[in-house]
Design brief:
The protein is an all-alpha fold. The chain has a single domain, classed as Up-down Bundle (de novo design (two linked rop proteins)), CATH 1.20.1440.60. α1 packs antiparallel against α2 and α2 packs antiparallel against α3. It is elongated. The model has no long low-confidence stretch (mean pLDDT 95).
Amino acid sequence: MDKAIFNEALRNRTKQFALRIIKLFQSLPKSGECQIIGKQLLKSGTSVAANYRAACRAKSKAEFVSKISIVIEEADESAFWLELLIDSKIVQEKKLTPLLHEAIELLSIFSTARKTSTKKT
């Protein structure tokens, strides 16, 4: 697959992930703990897309690796908050499983991208 096409597909995928996180946040109960966890998830989930866009505009390999590292941290944090919503039984597991799997897949994709970018040629 062409690199530009792959990057655009991944930009769209991370944006869709962010939109799904927003919808989830909007559907959470309005109790204090739900809103706190939800806001943390909202920040990390939307940050995945925003920081991937920034990584695509990187001016150097070092800047790309730095931005992708942030994406990795935010995807991992998103997975954590989703797991917390499941484990606390705030949201039924079956409702969050697809979103959790997407967070884990994105984490894997970006971890591989960072690893590939830091290999010595």
